Amino acid sequence: xxxxxxxxxxxxxxxxxxxxxxxxxxxxxxxxxxxxxxxxxxxxxxxxxxxxxxxxxxxxxxxxxxxxxxxxxxxxxxxxxxxxxxxxxxxxxxxxxxxxxxxxxxxxxxxxxxxxxxxxxxxxxxxxxxxxxxxxxxxxxxxxxxxxxxxxxxxxxxxxxxxxxxxxxxxxxxxxxxxxxxxxxxxxxxxxxxxxxxxxxxxxxxxxxxxxxxxxxxxxxxxxxxxxxxxxxxxxxxxxxxxxxxxxxxxxxxxxxxxxxxxxxxxxxxxxxxxxxxxxxxxxxxxxxxxxxxxxxxxxxxxxxxxxxxxxxxxxxxxxxxxxxxxxxxxxxxxxxx
Length: 338
Ligand code: NAD
Hints:
This protein is an alpha/beta fold. The chain is built from 13 helices and 15 strands. The strands form 2 sheets. Strands 8, 9, 10, 11, 12, 13, 14 and 15 form an 8-stranded mixed β-sheet that branches.
């Protein structure tokens, strides 16, 4: 059993903890929480040991009637691999502790590539992370783009890709951030960081991106224009390539999938925990090739897509697993169809 700690029990940390607990070869040794809020109560109800982030937080837990098993550093000592799911930049600060205690760690997409040196999407570059000390599971947008672009690149080769991202303004629980009544350029000066971030995983693909935030909470939508190397590429060929790609599902507008709302409605019917959609959602009938350029729409359930990647990253850092074995095992445990 690989002993895993989760540092930061928010949107991503809570999901990763459940996914790790569902693996036959892994166990959760504990989770780090900053405050004794309802998420701490949920962790206790799930049987996870709670560690306070520091002495001050430990005191707050004690006053609220919680028994904590120690502070974050104590948990890191207990673990073989830490999944750091703290907010942006906090992971980079935590690295000193992992380094000092000689522990392997997985960072999230809010951190810079250099924090880990390996940016990870299981189906693209699992082998790069095998046996390494650190890996960074890239952001939700980067993960979705990498799955789509990697499949197209393998089938036909990509000269360059141009991407426009309509980003959800906030996660559903973030009442402090929304609702907004605007389309917010994110950022105004171009390009956005997303294209460069894809290139930390797929460095040979030239990707330029622009992004804006829209008043929705439940998905990002990507519009892609991809110049193909192979002049013989066909729309049916692209669809076939996607059908054979793991963690990518095709949805058809003609079936009623007219927006991200219907995709999430479908995800609710899958009866997964929290209605999570771990797969990138590609609109099959948006796939079009015009003058050697492939156009398509793809959607990303931002809270969920990186969860299987974190599980695979644990196996990669641990060593002893092939990419295909890990992906298959993770998929089965999370109910991922293909
Ligand atoms: P979040 O705010 O929901 O969760 C972070 C948790 O860490 C919070 O519960 C916070 O209290 C806790 N925390 C803060 N400081 C801490 C510390 N010093 N020690 C322990 N815990 C601490 O954030 P999130 O959305 O889960 O994001 C976490 C990471 O995942 C970020 O890098 C983010 O960019 C990335 N990510 C987020 C999403 C998303 O859509 N939410 C998607 C993909 C990747």
